[in-house]
Design the sequence.
């Protein structure tokens, strides 16, 4: 039973205010298994290939129903309600646009560029629509989520933020993260009740500092090694004229190795940062103004799981991917929770579906998938 | 009053749009499917066809939605499956039955890998050929015109070669172009200053060839060598290499996107990078094909088929380009190309004898 770990309400009352013990939180759990998901996964891929990609929309529905349905809070799972047809229509539109865009970009570059810019203007609107779709097709205890964000907020969070972060070489990344978490966290609804979050910039920067240090230190080390090796090899070929073939070969291997190393450093820094920001933003969030949310991922463990998952997936040519996906879902769920203030049964019996969230979903299409 | 059948499954019932659940069970009553609470009272009910029963995914709880919007949820998947089978609705669970952990999945893995390889080896090249065949000639023309315009604006400058020099090159060029598949009218030769591109020659898909002053200077008085290089560029046009490359890259990206949702973003990146490496290998084989075309065209025109080889030798000595072929290069290594050219000349001569 997923109630395990909760304390009787009386003991909570005895505590003074301040940071409550983690045991007060109802944690999510994940009940799926790698072997069970393996079947869903391989049938998804096989049917997608056989149907020339059309099944991929239904594949997404089955995958999400599996992961949402096995995400358990207080003994009940989440549900994913999207239909294959809706997702297929959205994908066909995106696909048609990409074809037209690439064709014009190749054959009439200037018109293509114009089309790209035009698209860029629509991105915030599409992101807001996509988030709303994702929220509305998700339910817990028969009540749907909803998303009230508009294009303006999406523009700030997903266009201005990343651009600003890139222009300042990552120094303003925490600001961008704060915008995007606030955009999502403050616009998410469950039934008629709202979520809200206001992650402190200072805390995000504390988490950012570690990633920045890893990035700078890592790149310095790689740069130093590259410098050392090239001067070493250079010295060798100056003396001996025959070494050209060998040095060419080793130079190529070194370039490839350096490339992989730099990517790995960026990957690790991004994973650590992502986990840190998630912790800050979720732990600063509340539901209905009272119930606090929690995320306490260990940044090291999270990064380790992500990296080993990646390696295992590559080494087994993808066959262990289902196991890896389940492993990650389990870890993330078990480090996500919510602390209900008051009687849980009473809280949920007061939550009703907001009228607009149902029905409207059927007019909607998925659009771009950004996910939470 | 009809009596209730035995409970089909037990679970929880939610009124429409409410998060408040009631412990309930599913049963049949007089041909209708109903949800009853613990005391036997009917909470919801309807004829089976108007009830929506979610399909089975693993052990995820089943959702049964009644026309009034209320929902019955149960974890007893097998019981629901048995009930549906009893109603002759066996086929609804077919995808789930395929997905169950079973030795059959090994066959699915094998089939997936086999299909993937077949698509890459046969379907993709076939699709590229079909796309090339159905591309109207106006497409490469527009493409080339806009590329030349863009390059003229950004990289290339006006040629500073004197008329006599140009005349000699054009004359040699006409001899080989006249013998090519598209004929002399199929090609236009443009002289430009290469700027950052340096000594270079390239072909646009509609038969527009561009030759830089720097390459002409590098060749010195050896006009035949330049003609050999131009014959190589004609080879690219005749084999429609640029169109093929565009379609191939697009097709490969589409293939990766097809399975992308299920392999994780890291693995997807690796696939995309791998696709890039494969595209390079394709580019190397295209270069070799164009080299060979140069040899054959020069022979037909009664010129020295080794002219292109001389050009590569010149590159080796003057620019010290001794690069080996590697999986990271767009062109084969220069020494290797010279050797291949010598081989083709030998073979072509033997054929003529």
Sequence:
């Amino acid at each position: 039973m997923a109630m395990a770990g909760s304390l009787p309400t009386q003991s909570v009352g005895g505590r003074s205010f301040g940071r409550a013990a983690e045991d007060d939180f109802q944690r999510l759990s994940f009940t799926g298994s790698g072997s069970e998901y393996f079947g869903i996964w391989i049938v998804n891929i096989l049917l997608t290939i056989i149907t020339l990609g059309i099944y991929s929309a239904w594949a997404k529905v089955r995958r999400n129903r599996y992961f949402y349905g096995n995400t358990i809070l207080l003994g009940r799972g989440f549900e994913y309600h999207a239909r294959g047809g809706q997702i297929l229509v959205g994908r066909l539109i995106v696909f048609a646009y990409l074809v037209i865009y690439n064709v014009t970009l190749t054959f009439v570059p200037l018109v293509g560029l114009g089309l790209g810019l035009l698209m860029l203007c629509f991105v915030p609107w599409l992101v807001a629509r996509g988030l709303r779709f994702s929220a509305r097709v998700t339910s817990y205890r028969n009540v749907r989520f909803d998303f009230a964000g508009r294009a303006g907020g999406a523009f700030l969070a997903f266009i201005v933020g990343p651009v600003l972060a890139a222009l300042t070489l990552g120094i303003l990344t925490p600001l961008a993260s704060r915008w995007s978490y606030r955009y999502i966290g403050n616009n998410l609804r469950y039934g008629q009740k709202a979520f809200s979050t206001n992650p402190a910039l200072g805390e995000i920067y504390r988490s950012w500092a570690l990633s920045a240090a890893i990035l700078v230190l890592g790149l310095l080390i790689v740069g130093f090694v590259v410098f050392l090796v090239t001067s070493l090899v250079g010295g060798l070929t100056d003396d001996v004229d025959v070494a050209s073939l060998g040095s060419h070969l080793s130079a190529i291997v070194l370039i490839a190795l350096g490339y992989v190393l730099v990517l790995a450093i960026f990957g690790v820094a991004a994973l650590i940062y992502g986990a840190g920001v998630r912790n800050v933003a979720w732990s600063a969030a509340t539901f209905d103004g009272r119930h606090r949310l929690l995320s306490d991922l260990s940044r090291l463990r999270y990064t380790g799981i992500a990296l080993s998952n990646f390696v295992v997936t590559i080494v087994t040519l993808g066959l262990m991917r289902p196991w890896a996906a389940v492993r990650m879902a389990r870890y993330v769920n078990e480090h996500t929770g919510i602390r209900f203030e008051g009687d849980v049964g009473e809280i949920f019996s007061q939550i009703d579906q907001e009228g607009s969230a149902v029905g409207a979903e059927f007019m909607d299409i998925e659009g771009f998938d950004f996910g939470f | 009053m009809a009596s209730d059948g035995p409970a089909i499954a037990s679970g929880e019932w939610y009124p429409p749009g409410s998060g408040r659940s009631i412990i309930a069970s599913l049963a049949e009553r007089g041909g209708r499917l109903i949800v009853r609470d613990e005391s036997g009272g009917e909470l919801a009910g309807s004829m089976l066809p108007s009830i929506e029963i979610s399909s089975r995914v693993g052990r995820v709880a089943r959702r049964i939605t009644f026309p009034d919007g209320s929902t019955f949820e149960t974890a007893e998947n097998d019981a629901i499956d048995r009930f549906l089978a009893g109603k002759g609705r066996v086929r609804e669970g077919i995808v789930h039955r395929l997905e169950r952990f079973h030795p059959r999945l090994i066959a699915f893995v094998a089939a997936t890998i086999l299909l993937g390889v077949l698509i890459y080896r046969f379907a993709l090249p076939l699709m590229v050929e079909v796309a090339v065949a159905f591309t109207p000639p106006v497409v490469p023309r527009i493409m080339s015109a806009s590329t030349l315009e863009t390059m003229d604006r950004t990289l290339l400058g006006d040629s500073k070669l004197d008329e006599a020099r140009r005349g000699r090159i054009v004359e040699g060029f006409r001899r080989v172009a006249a013998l090519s598949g598209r004929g002399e009218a199929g090609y236009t030769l443009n002289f430009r200053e290469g700027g950052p591109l340096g000594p270079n020659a390239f072909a646009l898909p509609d038969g527009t060839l561009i030759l830089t002053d720097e390459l002409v200077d590098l060749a010195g008085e050896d006009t035949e060598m330049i003609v050999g290089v131009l014959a190589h560029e004609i080879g690219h046009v005749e084999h429609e290499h640029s169109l093929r490359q565009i379609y191939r890259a697009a097709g490969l990206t589409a293939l990766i996107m097809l399975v992308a949702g299920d392999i994780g973003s890291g693995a997807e990146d690796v696939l995309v990078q791998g696709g890039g490496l494969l595209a390079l290998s394709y580019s190397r084989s295209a270069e070799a094909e164009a080299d060979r075309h140069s040899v054959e065209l020069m022979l037909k025109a009664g010129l020295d088929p080794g002219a292109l080889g001389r050009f590569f030798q010149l590159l080796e000595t003057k620019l010290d380009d001794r690069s080996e072929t590697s999986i990271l290069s767009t062109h084969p290594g220069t020494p290797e190309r010279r050797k291949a050219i010598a081989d083709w000349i030998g073979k072509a001569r033997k054929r003529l004898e």
Remarks:
- Confidence is low (pLDDT under 50) at residues 1-21, 237-245, 357-363, 367-372 of chain A.
- DSSP finds 13 helices and eleven strands in chain A.
- Residues 103 and 109 of chain A are 9 Å apart (CA to CA).
